[in-house]
Amino acid sequence: PGRYRLSTRSEPALGSRGAGLPPGGGGAAKSSATVSRNLNRFSTFVKSGGEAFVLGEASGFVKDGDKLCVVLGPRGPEWQENPYPFQCSIEDPTKQTKFKGMKSYIAYKLVPSHTGQQVHRRYKHFDWLYGRLAEKFPVISVPHLPEKQATGRFEEDFISKRRKGLAWWMDHMCSHPVLAQCDAFQHFLTCPSTDEKAWKQGKRKAEKDEMVGANFFLTISVPTGPGASLDLQEVESQVDGFKAFTKKMDESALQLNHTANEFARKQVTGFKKEYQKVGHSFKCLSQAFELDQQAFSAGLNQAIAFTAEAYDAIGDLFADQPRQDLDPVMDLLALYQGHLANFPDIIHVQKGALTKVKESKRHVEEGKMELQKAEGIQERCNIISFATLAEINHFHKIRVRDFKSQMQHFLQQQILFFQKVTQKLEEALHKYDSV
């Protein structure tokens, strides 16, 4: 019964994605020739490095391997597809020990399809990777990991649920054109579990990555030429529409999660109990009938006893059903609630860039800024807008794929369930044919 507790999510604080402060993006003195800073209003914008980038303060050497391309697709800006797509399975969670058995942990077997080589990773390795990626990519929604748990970590139900959550997480990582090709993620997937030295070297390299914060935006290349620049008013309208969409989706996901959770709890406890109560009552009736020793009653007594067993079995079917259909839906909702928690910060970065453009235009009109500088601000805002719209497009694409697949699975499992119930009732019915 304790399995089905409603999980609620509080709204994240601005800047909660843990992005590092940009170099020189703190409290530089204002001058009449620059766009004024407002550290409080767009705290995420500042922390993510968006402000330093838009104002042209970011500088760094971008290697070919760091370049990220946004292209124009049929639905607008999109991340350039990964030319070598792959998947990665997460199987066989096993309990392992270290320090001569003093410390226990669960290790998961990962098998990426592009290498075919299995590696073992602990939850703390996933957690480290998540922290690196959330810091590196200010306008990409890095999927949240299943929640940590201090007690009951080695219980079978918890391990199974966590493995499923990690499998969803891994699917979203592999499906993202940018995250899938990131060096830190590839290191996580391919470094042999037994090579502690190589693991630490790759870890240090990822932690020293300079293309984070403001410098991350330098790695993005966007379409150029006629017709490639974005209409900022249109961008603002699209982002506002997406903001309204995510708010509504978040509310409805919470509502569905609550409803599914409540329904699953009723099936595990209430429905099972009620059906088995009916079964018990039929059994009592058949036992009462057995007191009549007449030979012609035996068939009826057996049929009623069988009906009692059928209702008992149907009760068990109800109790087991949520793990087949409702649990997977709630796992998916949990993953998407993580994405929805990321988007306020992503939107703030984009909104901050738009505000700087508006301010720079006003400063040009007032003679406080040169046109060339304002055009540079607009150009860099364009890059953030392209990346944000590409991320929004990716989110919708994956959302349609996931919810289609999950709803099909849910309905297929529901149909199978009712077929099993019908079969039990038909078997019971046929017992009366020869009475």
From TrEMBL:
Ranges for the PX domain?
86-196
GO molecular function: any one? phosphatidylinositol binding
Region ranges (Disordered): 1-32
Which Pfam families is this protein grouped with? BAR_3_WASP_bdg, PX
Q: Where is the composition biased (Gly residues)?
A: 17-28
Localization in the cell: Cytoplasmic vesicle membrane
Mind telling me which InterPro entries this protein's record contains? Answer: AH/BAR_dom_sf (IPR027267), PX_dom (IPR001683), PX_dom_sf (IPR036871), SNX18_PX (IPR035703), Sorting_nexin_WASP-bd-dom (IPR019497)
UniProt keywords, alphabetically = Cytoplasmic vesicle, Membrane, Protein transport, SH3 domain, Transport
Q: What GO terms fall under cellular component here?
A: cytoplasmic vesicle membrane; plasma membrane
Top-rank taxon of the source lineage equals: Eukaryota
Q: Which GO terms describe its biological process?
A: cleavage furrow formation; endocytosis; endosomal transport; plasma membrane tubulation; protein transport
Does the keyword Membrane belong to this entry? Answer: yes
Q: Write out the similarity annotation.
A: Belongs to the sorting nexin family.
Q: What is this protein called?
A: SNX18 protein
Q: Which organism is it from?
A: Neodrepanis coruscans (wattled asity)
